[in-house]
Each structure stands twice: as C-alpha cells, then as structure tokens.
From TrEMBL:
Span of domain Nucleoside phosphorylase: 6-241
GO terms under cellular component: cytosol
InterPro entries, per the entry: Nucleoside_phosphorylase_d, Nucleoside_phosphorylase_sf
Protein name per its UniProtKB record: Purine phosphorylase
Gene3D superfamilies according to UniProt: Nucleoside phosphorylase domain
Species, as recorded: Spongiactinospora rosea
Amino acid sequence: MSPSPTVILTALDLEYQAVRSRMSGPRVHRHPQGTRFEVGRLADAGCEVALGHVGKGNQSAAVLAERAIHEFAPAALLFVGVAGALQSHIALGDVVVATHIYAFHGGTSEDDGFKSRPRVWETSHAAEQIARHIARTHSWVRYLPEYTPEPEIHFGPIAAGEVVLNSADSAYARWIRDNYNDARAIEMEGAGIAQAAHLNGSLPVVVVRGISDRADGSKEESDRAQWQGRAVVNAAAFAAALAGELAAEHAAGTLPSPTPTPRIPEMRGTTENIAMGNAQVGVQAGVVHGGIRITSEPPPPADLPQALDALRARLRRALAEGQVDQVTYDAVESELTVADEALRGGARPSTVTVALRKVRGLIGDVSSLATALAAAITLAQGPPS
C-alpha cells in the first residue's frame, strides 16, 4: 500500500459495490476495532484507495471517517453515494458535489417555534477547484460505462440530517426550504464526514452524490426504476476521476494533507544515570520528553570534607526535585553540621560515623543520595584494620 492512499467511504452496499467494481486486486485491511476496509488501486484512475462502508447516519460516518483518517493518513477523503434532489432543475442521475455541508438538525425550540442553529462546513478550496476543473473539462466522462449519457455536475450546498426526506409538503420539507433554500440535495452522512475532516486540519474532503430521487414523495417510484444504481454509477465515475487528480496533486506536494501523529505519553522530570566501575550508560529512544543526563562515574572524593560537600550538593538537589521534604532536609543538615564540627574540633572519627549513620536512617531510601552517603561513611570509618 502506498503511504498516502485516498480513502473512499460509502453508506449503502450498492454504493460500496459501485466503487469496488473499479478496484483492481482489493485486499482486506482490518482495523484493530473490527472495521474492515479494502485496499487496492482504482484501475481507471491509477491511484491507491482504501474503501470503507460506514452505514447510514452522521454519527457512524463521523466515527469511521476518523478511524480511516488515523489508520491510513490519506491524501484525501471522498464520500460517494446517492441523495435526494432539493431543486427542480436537478435531474435524476445528475451528480452534486458539495461546496458546503449543512447539519440541519441543530436548533432551539421556543414558544414561537423552532429556531434553526445550523452548523456549516466548507469543502477545502483546493479540492473544490480540482473538482470544478474536472467537471469543466469533461475529463471525467471517460470513467462512465459505455453508452451512458453524460449527466450534469452541480456544485452547491448539501443538507445532511438524520431523516430520509420523502415529501415536498411535510414540516421538515418546509423547514428546509425556509432555512436552507440554496441546498442542492439532502442526505444523511455528509455532516459526520465533514466534522471528522474539521477535526483533522487541512485534510481535503469532498462529498459526491448521485441524485436518485427528488425527496418529494416519489422515492418508491424512483427506486423501482433503479435510479439508485444508475445515480451511484455516475457519482462513482466522477469520484474516480477526482481521486486520481487529488492523488496526483498530493504526490506533487501541492495538496495539503496532515499526517496524524500517534500520541506518545509524556515523560516528566529528569532521569539521571551514573555508570559505576566499568559500566556505561546509553539511551536508545525514538522520542524522549523531559530531561536525560548521562554521565560517567564522578571521581571519588579525596577526603571526608570533600565527601560531605558532595553529599550536601546532592541533598540540595533532592530537596529542589521533591525527593526529600523540608523537615527531612533540616534534620540531615543538622547531623552534617555535627559531623563538620567534629572534624574541625579533632573529635574521634566515631563521632562523625554516628552522625552519618543517623543521616542514613533519614535518607537511606533516597537512591539519588545513596552513592554520596556511602562514600562519606566509608571515609569516616577509615580503611579496614
């Protein structure tokens, strides 16, 4: 599989089959959560695609679109399917390419009626420009089956909700005319796809719909006339041409497309490694967050005063990093002061040793202080007799 295929998603089996019939050598790609995609090449467009079936509705479309984006890091994402026409000049079998997606179910219910609160997502400028060029030059027509009449390509908003509209006079139909009168078609997945695209930055996403009915009560008649199958063949042909152009633009580096980065848990704080004896310390890591210090074994202190100074320095660092609290720090400092005074006053070495053993009782479980403390105790005890 190429590093950046184009993802094509569908909602209905006949939509899926219309795209799959154009693929050569499709092979199953299993997502860890059970979703199955098929990956292959669009034989006529010459680009790698990952095909997925999301089922009906915006919610499942959003979830599986997000899943596909993070699984394949695609060059672009297309949604291919059928829709109902909302304007009389759009004929059955025509293709609508979304310039905007309206999520028309948003709103607030008040005493004087329902007030619309739509959400709108725009198709990316670069992807829309490519789609318009393909339509303008009629270069996509060669992807149609032989003897198929060329349908018209329409660009404009598509309304996406959670209902199948099959009435020209219902409350829903009137509400959509009142609030979304520039919408060209109505369907049930585009808002979910658009939301997934919005959450993934600059990923080009295009919704391509073949018109299979007029959303006016005549859907059953249109379905009997097999307009769903005819409309989706037209939509799949246009989408194949668009997928090829988007893939070429992406390969040339002229089409923005984010590559999702896997989340890596953050590592806090600083890790300190000290090599002892003949040991060496190294780090092999892909990504490291936080600080790492690699040092060789420090030279051993020459005498007991130097060892006490080294222990004090490490104690201050342990306090700053929260490895010891202030009460423990003060108690240790008090015992180190006893050791200092015993050294200066010429007291017996056992006095210093006793003080350092008390220190060990206070901080013996703090690993970052263990080495310096052990060196000080060894010097205080002197060479073995």
